[in-house]
Amino acid sequence: MSEPVLSIRALRRVYQSGAEELEVLDGAELDLYPGELVGLVGPSGSGKSSLLHAAALLETPTAGQVIIAGQDGLALGERARTALRRREIGFVYQFHHLLPELSALENAALPLRIAGRGAGAAREAAKAKLEALGMGGRLDHRPGQLSGGEQQRVAIARALVNNPRVVLADEPTGNLDPAHSDQVFEALASACREAGAAALIATHNLALAERMDRVLTVEQGRLTPWTPDA
């Protein structure tokens, strides 16, 4: 078996609420391998988003390790951690978070521009991702001119434009109707598989979860396998 591209070890996340502590993760462990799609299910408040944000190096957990491409991202300084995140991780949110003043092409190219890629090269890479996601005819449209499903496709292109090895998605179809949810999930799954990226996708949609390679749930702060009849 190949080496994991993302390993989470002994992850704890405790939130302070006044004098009380709320522990949502307590020793969570995960290995994510190249090319696999892993679903993450569980009720709201179970710790799915906390796990994803820690895995993406967007938040600092209370304790634990997040090992990406052989490096513990949590042990790095802020600048090195940011560089690792930009290089190795793509993140898709429930809400697209596109910049309204930019076109679909400009939004998708933004991570490459931030990373210092030239404008022409960034636009070509973004165009290729958008075209692969069926958005070739909407490159110059701004987010307000796109449907919800189209906006999420742009967000997926933006997450994948750096060719990250890890894609993390937090309820990427949660704001869409069933028909568009299915279309966006298929677009995300196909794009990840084509790129050979590992994906961890949190979802409340159990029908979508069952179509992934394996499914995990958060129980008492830890990750355990989930089955449809569980």
Describe the fold and architecture.
- With 230 residues, the protein is an alpha/beta fold.
- It has a single domain, classed as P-loop containing nucleotide triphosphate hydrolases (Rossmann fold).
- Helices cover 34% and strands 27% of the residues.
- It has seven helices and ten strands.
- Strands 6-7-8-3-9-10 form a six-stranded mixed sheet. A four-stranded antiparallel sheet has the order 2-1-4-5, with helices on one face.
- A hairpin with a 2-residue loop joins strand 1 (6-17) and strand 2.
- The radius of gyration is 17 Å and the shape is globular.
- The two termini are 28 Å apart.
- Overall residue-averaged pLDDT value: 89
| Total domain modules | 1
Helix-strand pattern: EEEHEEHEHHHEHEHEE
What is the CATH C level class, in words? Alpha Beta
Number of strands: 10
Q: Termini distance?
A: 28 Å
Unreliable stretches (pLDDT < 50, length at least 5) are none
Rg over CA atoms, rounded to whole Å, is 17 Å
Number of helices: 7
Spatial shape: globular
Largest sheet: 6 strands, mixed
Strand content: 25-35%
Topology-level CATH name? Rossmann fold
Spatial arrangement of strands, main beta sheet? 6-7-8-3-9-10
Structural class: alpha/beta
